[in-house]
Amino acid sequence: MGDARARRSAPFAVPFRTLELPRPFGPFLLEAKLGHGGMAEVFRARVYGASGFEKVVVVKTLKAELLGEPEPERMFLEEARLQALLSHRNLVQAHDAGVAEGRPWVRLDFVDGVDLSRLALPLPAEVARFVAAELALGLHALHEASDATGRPLGIVHRDVSPKNVLLSKWGEVRLADFGIARATQLQEQTRGGVRKGTWAYMSPEQVAGRALTSASDQFALATLTVELLTGARPFDAATPLETMDRIKEARPPALDAVEAGLREVLLRAFSAEPSARFPSSRALREALCACGPVADELALAELVRSSLAAGQERGSTASTRIDTEAPG
Ligand SMILES: Nc1ncnc2c1ncn2[C@@H]1O[C@H](COP(=O)(O)OP(=O)(O)O)[C@@H](O)[C@H]1O
Ligand SMILES: [Mg+2]
Questions:
Q1: Which of 51, 177, 234, 256 sits at a 20 to 30 Å CA gap from 37?
Q2: 176 lines ligand 1 (CB under 6 A)
Q3: Model pTM score
Q4: What are the structural domains of the chain?
Q5: Which residues are catalytic?
Q6: CA of residue 327 to ligand 2 center, whole Å
Q7: Are 62 and 33 in contact (CB under 8 A)?
Q8: Is the CB of 177 under 6 A from ligand 1?
Q9: 199 lines ligand 1 (CB under 6 A)
Q10: What is the pLDDT of residues 256-311, one digit of tens each?
């Protein structure tokens, strides 16, 4: 087994990011690195077909360091399998998966724009409500997803955080990165997962290592919404450990800067007891939309385009802007 592993991983001891792009890879031409996290490297790529057909796609591959490890490989392909079942305007869908040069890959829609971590905060309140409402709709579809036989999958995303929220230059909002999303039935088997959620957006039950339900994603969405509205995360402390302590205490954050109606909605989503939150992400969306005017795609598109333009001024482009070691 040691031999087999060495054989498979040897050509990839060097991650793609240090190799020259563009570079052919399976059916793709990898063009630019979009990001990397705990498990994966993500590329903008091109596929070609008959009569000059070509299309820009995203190729996510398992990190070189994890090749040959059975558990990460299984998790990576499990992510692809779940993501293929999700066809919704607010979710990034997987279209196919395969292995090239011994390395598993999954093909995703390319979202031409920025991730939420690139927008200048706070956002205008209407736009923040729009982004939050769209994410709640995506989470609703995710939580309600079922397999081909109609059996509910019970998926929980578990990592609703800015780098996993993609915004297109047309103002679409899409939740990405199902790397630690799990069908609840599988949770026990995957406990020792390769990485956990982004701590600042964790729910009390996630910090405590308890079982997660769809209500945990509501908690993360509420944290994200406060950040969009105020520019600050409600539980942030000096260190990650202190932040997690504050989340675990589950004392409701002071939301003085948030108007009263919306504050009530967010505080309900911040309930320590998951069952005291909204009965579904759909109900959370309805409550968010009832708080006041909600912007539309065109308003968000303008912000995305100005963020892209600002990025270009700094000499980067949308496709090469992210290169951080932080999970996300
Ligand atoms: N479908 C996509 N379209 C455009 N950019 C993407 C897409 N998927 C991922 N990215 C970019 O790549 C980064 C990392 O992707 P992600 O799926 O979150 O991988 P990881 O599991 O390594 O965090 C994202 O934060 C985003 O900026
Ligand atoms: Mg991510």
A1: 234
A2: yes
A3: 0.88
A4: 2-108 (3.30.200.20), 113-313 (1.10.510.10)
A5: 159
A6: 6
A7: no
A8: yes
A9: no
A10: 999 999 999 999 999 999 999 999 999 999 999 999 999 999 999 999 999 999 98
